[in-house]
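Researcher: Please predict.
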Amino acid sequence: MKNGIIHQSQHAPDPAYPTDAREKSTMADTTAYHIAERKIEKALRAREIELDLRGSDDTGLTELPESLGQLTQLESLDLSGNQLTALPESLIRLTQLEWLNLSENQLTTLPESLSQLTQLQSLRFSGNQLAALPEWLSQLTWLRSLGLSGNQLTTLPESLGQLTQLEYLELSGNRLMALPESLSRLTQLRYLNLSGNRLTTLPASLIRLTRLERLSLSGNQLTMLPESLIRLTRLQLLRLSGNRLTTLPASLGRLDSLGTLEVESNPFHPELAAAVSEGLNAVRRYLRAQARAQVALNEAKLILIGEGEVGKSCLLGALRGDPWEEGRPTTHGIEIKPVEVTDPGTGIEIRLNGWDFGGQRVYRPTHQLFFTAPAVYLVVWKPREGPQQGFVKEWIKLVKHREPEAKILVVSTHGGPQARQPDIDRQEIWDLNPGAQGNRGAEAGDRPRCGRPAGDGPPLPQALASGARAVARDRGCLSAARSVLRHLRGTGHRAGGRPAPAAHLSPGRGPDPLRA
């Protein structure tokens, strides 16, 4: 055998193989071989265009008769269910073949001579031992159906995208961890089976397969699906069972063509799991309700808390780009003002409703009633007075008592090169608030009520959005605001106004959460 092609019949005895078993095997091989020869002779005499040489449970071909190459009129050849490890050279003479089935054999490689069967429209290699696909496969440009399930493929060649006539692609039961971008060129695909692989994400380009009617993704490791699946408007069946999905894209509820949705064995949150148990219509109602809720999705609370006169109102004004206000009065109760930021990943405008809470102790019991999880909390303190005087830990505990999953930014104001730098037990804050975020306002002079800007310039949010280093040499809360906005933009917000989880920070790893 050379390059996966059998040149002549070889039956070398194996001394380690029991004689009686070897004899039975040899007899079965001989019987299957003779049966195949008789079928070939019959087809040759009758000039048949179809030939069935499928193996059975008891008998199967280990090699093919060379006479097979004489059937140059063949259009359909079924060689599935045998024990073939290689293919004869004579196979390349079957240039009229349109349908070839080599499933359930023991092939580990494919001879390049198959690339000459350019009339092939259907090719099946399922249930073999292929670890890679040859580049020459892309030369079979008339292929409409390609079966490769149950092999050992870990990657797909980019050249697969050249098979632009494909309508059916079977890749289940392999070891694929990613898909090539070229898959998006297969715009004629109606059936795509990727079940039983190791996929963790789907390429965004998948949405170009707008003719898809059946998409199987069960038994992978997917944790999320793109909202852009809504573009697959012809999708009738979607299999997602046995993944790691906790939610489904709301856009699926608008796929009216979808008649079958299989999503069992996923760790969905309780509301979605309840809908799944009731069937497709319940899931569709749930997802449509989610979509309606997302009309006002890009809003969240931004809650500023801390002791009195630490600069909360000035910080909120700086975040909004408000002009400096000399002698700003102390806040009593609550003031609510919007802050507009932009998600850097999507460019979506996010509206944060800034809640400025008065720091006087008399308001503290009622303020807790407004603490809710879908919010970003800013605990503001003044380094000159120290964290104890700023009651930083107490404010964090107050929030965590009401909302254990709340996301908190610790912000210091009234700092600067000549002023006292933030001195706070970072480990204690981490332990108290795992995943805490923090920053400090650098380049800030120690001015009463946060100080005023030293120069004029465009509003701070616009300057930050365009990448400007600073409006001028910021003083007071402007530099704290600059740091806060950077954190807010980096964190982003989820649908429904829920802030995305802050990055997990631990001592000695990643950025210092208490530095700008």
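Model: Residues 1-19, 21-25, 435-478, 490-516 have pLDDT under 50 and may be disordered.
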